[in-house]
Amino acid sequence: MILSIEELSIAGRERTIVDNVSLAVREGEFMALVGQSGSGKSLLSQSIGQLLPPNLHASGRIVFEGSNLLERTSKEMRALRGSRISYIFQDYQGAFTPFRSIGGHFDEYQKVHGEKSASVRKTKAAAALESVGLDAALLRRYPFQLSGGQLQRAAIATSLLLSPRLLIADEATTALDSVSGHRVLELLVAKQKETGCAILFITHDWRHVRRYANRLSVMKEGRIVESGGKHRILDHPQHEYTRKLIDAAPVLSRSLKSGLEEETP
Amino acid sequence: MFRILLRKFSEVFIFLLFIMFVSFLFIRLAPGDPVLTILNVDELSVSQEQVEAMREEMGFNDPLPVQFGSWLLDFVRLDFGTSYSTGQPVMQTLMSALPATAELTLGALLVMLLIAVPLGSLSAVYRGSWIDTLSRMLSIVGAAVPSFWLGLILIDLFGVRFGNLPTMGRDGFASLILPCVTLGLAISSVYVRLLRSSLLDSLSQEFVRSARARGLSEGRIFWLHALRHSLPPVITVFGVSLGSLIGGVVVIEVLFAYPGIGKLVVDAIRQRDYPLIQGYILIMAIVVFIVNTAVDLSYRYLNPEMKLKEKEAHR
Amino acid sequence: MKSMPARVRTRPSKSKKHSVQAIVAALFALLVIAASVYTFLYLKHDPTLTDLRGRLLGASTLHPLGTDHLGRDVLTRLLLGGGQTLGYSLLALGAALVIGIPFGLIAGYKRGWVDKVFMRIADGFLAFPDTIVAIVLSGLLGAGISNLVLAIVIVKWVSYARLVRSTVLSESQKDYIRIARTNGLSDARIMTKHLLPHIAGHVLVLASLDLGKIILLISSLSYIGLGAQPPTPEWGAMLNDSRPYFQSRPELMVYPGLAIVSVVLLANMLGDYLRDRFDVKKEVQP
What range does the domain containing C111 cover? Predict the structure, then answer.
């Protein structure tokens, strides 16, 4: 168990947005967190890295690699963020500061996490870009010169650079066209096999869930309504809400919803 | 880039020529007789013959086209005439006063930064707190306070009652304090609010969150990412408010009797010292041109998008 | 350093702020009007009559705010000076509007060569900051309040014309203008009856924000002697007069200054209120 969220609640002054949520992510697994907009899934993911806006407060426990993150100092969290826990967000344009080159981001990021040698930083940056299928020449470019798919892949490259144990992808493909999105997902899964990191994948697209997830959790209005293995939930949803969501999702083929049939060797 | 500079320069040059021509016309046609000023009619008694002789000598009796021709010649030769009041060449007089104005302006800008950056930043980061409210009140009131009144009060407080900072003239570093603080305070109110709103906008951008998610420290994010991103609107306003800055410098120089070109030109106006006034106009036009160009160049530097798009357009 | 907001909080309700501002602005406006009316109806002291025996007196029933260095009643001069400053500022503003609005309307609506010429002229004018033009004009024509007003008008009309032009440009795309055109309404009619009401809001906001600046400009330049000439009462000039006496009579310095601050503050608040009300977001200067 690499990440264990225990009875987490996130509340603002007027209302509770996430209510007593418990969730676990195992080492190396692809965990999908599904729910509609406003269900609180993004906030949940942000609370893991202590990225919540200051008017919201989290209570409960978030246990990562044995210690409760909610009790860590900001300095400790900063060391964790980007190196052991990484994020990829939906807005790829927002992944990079507009007036800095892509290479500049890689460089700064590595410097902050302790890599002192400039040449090492440069080599690693180039290698990272190539590993996501991008040309190392892009390091000199600025964010506005890259396409959406390229930006998102570059963002993945930065997130995986320091080999995190947990990668949190918050609707990482939602804003991309289906081809780019597919590429990104394939990339994520390949990286996962390579590095053995766990992925917490937040989405509302059941096709992704069907194709890539190992386990999933369904969230509604701040609560987890159902949790478990992919096949089990997709084929035999227990909760009413889960059933509704699955029924509402567009399905492209006629086979069993979880694709179990295709997967049997 | 050179092309742009050239274009701008030619625009200003044409406008300059136009202004100089208009001022030339006015001088010849305006009320008041410069000859009387030169001869210091107030203090010395001058005979009518002397006045006539002077007038002949200065060419005021020549037909207008001739006068204009000689003026043009002088202009091309960069001879801007002799000041009626000081008797020195205009450019020399102005140039010797320029360092004082430069000190005053730079000092005031420094004071402004020292006020606006902390206040603006704190108001943005701690939005809604007492600092934010305080800075808002100060800005609103500050925008309504005339700089010369502020100067008078500061003179009264720190020059007379509670201290003895120099309040007149230019005499070492101490005499810069009151004028720079006055002017700096006066111009800062706009920038405090501007910086605040620009920062608020930058801080709410996604890239700030992404930087945070990568483990960058808040300080680094603020200074190197958010603040820098907030600069363009501030620079724009600076370029646009150049006029009031110049005006402010003039007023402050007069108030504190600081011997810069502002004070010089005000005295010149009182004495109808036209060559000096013309020289001042010329210098100011150049200053405005330089500042506007610097503003434009800074955009290119701050925003690589513009720089690169231009390169592409020229390929 | 405390963690900065990752998401901006929603703004507190604006309507409360509006009503407070509106009330304060209205109150002040009433005060100003009342003061002006009072002076006109009940002018006891001649503001320019010097009385050297009665100079620099403190507050008394005859002279509620004392007398200045030439024995003139301060309160009267203050009130009249306000009328002067305000009057000239409004005059400058009005003239700039009267020139700028038609230019902007025609340039924005007719387009074509009129527009091009206008933009060229505008760019030319814009190159020079208002203070310098004011100084220049004072220098050429002689110091005086009317030259100052002229200088302000010369510089300001451009910004109004440009504002009107850009608003007209965007409004022209809208259907109601197109319909008016196809219905055969004359250009003049469209411009006055249809476009004008729409631009009025934006122009009003810019004008009220400028009012404060103009008042400050007039008083600043009067202070250094380039604006209102003695013995005209004007706040900036009064401040200049008070300077030699501020050891013995510091209040001579305080009253005109406070007056300027109050009026400019009022004007700015009015401008803010109008801006919030009309919800003009973009280039209207802060």
Answer: 65-284
Best of A14, A17, A55 to mutate (most C CBs within 10 Å, chain C): A55
Write out pLDDT tens, residues C27-53: 767 777 777 676 666 666 666 666 666
pLDDT surpasses 90 at B170:
no
- Model ipTM over 0.90: no
Regions of chain C short of the pLDDT cut 70: 1-22, 25, 28, 36, 38-64, 124, 126-128, 139-140, 279-286
Does a structural domain hold residue C154? yes
Cα separation, B235 vs B237, in Å, equals: 5
Please, which contacts does C262-265 make with residues 24 or more away whose CB atoms are closer than 8 Å? C262/B144, C262/C28, C263/C32, C263/C82, C263/C85, C263/C86, C263/C215, C264/B143, C264/B144, C264/B145, C264/B146, C264/C212, C264/C215, C264/C216, C265/B140, C265/B141, C265/B144, C265/C212
Number of domains comprising chain C: 1
- Chains with 3+ CB–CB pairs under 8 A to B are A, C
Residues of C in contact with A51 (CB under 8 A): 6
A165 Cα to chain C: minimum distance (Å): 24
Domains with residue ranges and CATH for chain A: 1-84+164-265 (3.40.50.300), 98-163 (no CATH)
Question: Could you read off the pLDDT of B238-250 as tens digits, one per residue?
Answer: 888 888 898 899 9
